[in-house]
């Protein structure tokens, strides 16, 4: 199980741990892990001479981590430049260590006043100026380069080795090094990943070698030493803000982050990419887009939830000894193979089809018979002993799956089931509405998907005694919440929690990161179980009908006796893995039927461990 904790919890645990350690020891652990990861990214197994590293240093301890790590790397021969974004508030110990190790210190140029139309609202970062000390501003003095030690660029003419890319194909040609693995491979880290492929590219030092005097092309004045340092670097360390960050990147930082992104440098975020919200996974403005993130002590929810998760690159967790001080219940958790294997229902010798559970599927219509076929295809491979189909597409269903028990309706006349699935391709006609009333009134677990979500009565759902699982995508979730789709996409975690709380139901929010919030929905707080994030998804699943398969497989798991949150998260896990297996290691377009057909392979893969 991969677990993530809120900032508040992390701070409490750090406080406890720090009180038992000599001053500064924790930061040294973090810096040591960070330096090791950076060295591995730069030149696995080789020295650091000739490597150029730029540190982007903010006003807090995140900048302190970067400075201490930079000092370690400088002592090992790298040419390190620290760009101080808040020169008056830089971590003093980190700065002293960096100076002592020969790190070159520079400041960015002052920001030009933003031009705004008369009467226009100031941006958020500027509005804050009135209320908070402007510690994030680049400093009142002119940004002349302050050489505090001789520049250490021992080998300015030579180009470093190319970084061995290990990307998942979604990158931009910057390798992140085999040492950290890749997006999906790293995120799941348990055999679910398909990462570790080729891709990546070699770091071209040539363009970067243009030198400090070259125009920066990034919006600051020519000769800006900070931008030049970033552009020349082979590796940029983002120590702008960590868990203390609020809002998006300020303009000076955003410009440097952009320069880093546009360069060939590998961008490594310290603890989390600056500009993303650690607790919610939201990005309220510009954020660093890292190739790799080195996080300390535990995962933070933002590292696992989009859109923030899209900024992390490969994630490496550095153990700083926080484990014993973290509470049992995280804010967010991601199941791994072993967790799902323990949940999947396996028939015992005395099992029969009824004891394994019967799942009823109310789906399809004259117009959409395919949705019924796909939902049944998923249900047949979800572990229940039998699938009962109810609706007008019985012929299409038995033609494809003769093992299905079919019934024209209504659901309450179809015979006993242990769970209902309703919604895929259902339409919104009279029959559909009646069927919905029927299953809402049943005393067994109920999964509502697709068209069914449009027919939902919130109060009736709340009043149900048996569990209800809702499986909306962002658009459907937006309609249920009465907000714009973009709002749901920008705040997935908050949205899924809110839906779960409002409907008193377990909610599986599908999408780039699929989330499962337990009924009650305040995962990790107030005693509710954690929200789950699914680690197995793939973009190849974004195709018509895959949601129907998911509802079938999840309903089948409900019928087999899994609790709602477990059924939804195991269903999403199986479905995501089946999608990956169907798409193959290299990736290829797949149809929903392919996903259903790969579900048995996903089961075997999980049971193999
Ligand atoms: N507490 C500890 O013992 C440890 C902390 N560690 C590091 O410390 C970090 C947390 O340190 P801090 O609490 O000092 O917080 P941060 O380093 O995250 O930064 C907070 C500072 O940045 C300013 N700020 C907030 N949002 C900003 C933005 N968008 N742009 C620019 N400046 C902004 C704040 O006003 C504050 O001065 C962790 O993320 C981790 O990197 C690690 O060294 C491990 C040990
Ligand atoms: K950071």
Automatic annotation (TrEMBL):
Pfam families: Carb_kinase, YjeF_N. The keyword ATP-binding applies. Its cofactor is K(+); Mg(2+). Residues 164-203, 212-221 have a biased composition (Gly residues). Keywords: ATP-binding, Isomerase, Lyase, Metal-binding, NAD, NADP, Nucleotide-binding, Potassium. Residues 10-328 form the YjeF N-terminal domain. AMP binds at residues 510-514, 547. It catalyses: (6R)-NADPHX = (6S)-NADPHX; (6S)-NADHX + ADP = AMP + phosphate + NADH + H(+); (6S)-NADPHX + ADP = AMP + phosphate + NADPH + H(+); (6R)-NADHX = (6S)-NADHX. This is Multifunctional fusion protein. It comes from Streptomyces lycii. The lineage of its organism: Bacteria, Bacillati, Actinomycetota, Actinomycetes, Kitasatosporales.
């Amino acid at each position: 199980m991969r677990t993530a904790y809120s900032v508040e919890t992390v701070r409490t645990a750090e406080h406890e741990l720090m009180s038992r350690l000599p001053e500064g020891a924790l930061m040294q652990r973090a810096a040591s892990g960070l330096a090791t990861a950076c060295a591995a990214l730069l030149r696995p197994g080789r020295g650091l001479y000739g490597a150029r590293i730029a540190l982007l240093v903010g006003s807090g301890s995140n900048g302190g981590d970067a400075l201490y790590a930079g000092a370690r790397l400088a002592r090992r021969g790298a040419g390190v430049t620290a760009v101080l974004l808040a020169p008056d508030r830089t971590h003093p110990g980190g700065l002293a260590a960096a100076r002592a190790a020969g790190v070159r210190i520079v400041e960015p140029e002052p920001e030009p006043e933003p031009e705004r139309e008369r009467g226009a609202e100031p941006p958020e970062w500027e509005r804050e100026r009135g209320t908070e000390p402007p510690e994030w501003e680049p400093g009142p003095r002119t940004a002349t380069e302050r050489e505090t030690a001789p520049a250490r660029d021992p080998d300015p003419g030579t180009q470093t080795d190319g970084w061995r890319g290990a990307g998942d194909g979604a990158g931009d040609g910057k390798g992140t090094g085999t040492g950290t693995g890749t997006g999906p491979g790293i995120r799941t880290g348990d055999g679910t990943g398909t990462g570790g492929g080729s891709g990546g590219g070699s770091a071209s030092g040539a363009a970067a070698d243009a030198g400090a005097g070259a125009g920066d092309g990034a919006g600051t004045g020519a000769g800006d030493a900070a931008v030049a340092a970033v552009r020349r670097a082979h590796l940029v360390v983002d120590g702008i803000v960590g868990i203390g960050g609020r809002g998006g990147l300020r303009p000076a930082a955003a410009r440097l982050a952009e320069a880093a992104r546009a360069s060939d440098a590998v961008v490594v975020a310290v603890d989390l990419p600056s500009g993303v919200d650690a607790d919610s996974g939201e990005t309220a403005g510009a954020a660093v887009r890292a190739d790799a993130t080195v996080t300390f002590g535990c995962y933070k929810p933002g590292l696992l939830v989009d859109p923030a998760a899209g900024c992390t690159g490969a994630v490496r967790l550095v153990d700083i000894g926080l484990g014993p001080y973290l509470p049992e219940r995280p804010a967010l958790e991601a199941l791994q193979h072993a967790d799902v294997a323990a949940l999947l229902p396996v028939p015992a010798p005395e099992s029969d089809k009824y004891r394994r559970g019967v799942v009823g599927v109310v789906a399809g219509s004259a117009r959409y018979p395919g949705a019924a076929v796909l939902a049944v295809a998923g249900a047949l491979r979800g572990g229940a002993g039998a699938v009962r189909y109810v609706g007008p597409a019985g012929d299409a269903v038995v033609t494809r799956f003769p093992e299905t028990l079919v019934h024209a309706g209504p659901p309450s006349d179809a015979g006993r089931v242990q769970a209902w699935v309703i919604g895929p391709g259902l339409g919104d006609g009279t029959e559909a509405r009646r069927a919905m009333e029927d299953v809402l009134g049943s005393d067994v677990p109920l999964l509502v998907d697709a068209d069914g979500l449009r027919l939902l009565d919130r109060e009736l759902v709340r009043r149900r005694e048996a569990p209800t699982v809702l499986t909306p995508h962002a658009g459907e979730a937006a309609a249920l919440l009465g907000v714009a789709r973009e709002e749901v996409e920008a705040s997935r975690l908050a949205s899924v929690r809110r839906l779960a709380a409002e409907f008193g139901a377990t909610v599986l929010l599908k999408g780039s990161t699929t989330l499962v919030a337990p009924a009650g929905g305040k995962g990790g707080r107030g005693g509710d179980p954690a929200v789950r994030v699914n680690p197995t998804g793939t973009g190849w699943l974004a195709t018509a009908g895959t949601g129907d398969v998911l509802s079938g497989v999840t309903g089948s798991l409900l019928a087999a006796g899994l609790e709602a949150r477990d059924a939804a998260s195991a269903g999403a896990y199986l479905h995501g893995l089946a999608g990956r297996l169907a798409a193959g290691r290299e990736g290829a377009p797949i149809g929903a039927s392919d996903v259903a057909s790969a579900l048995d392979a996903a089961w075997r893969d999980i049971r193999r461990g």
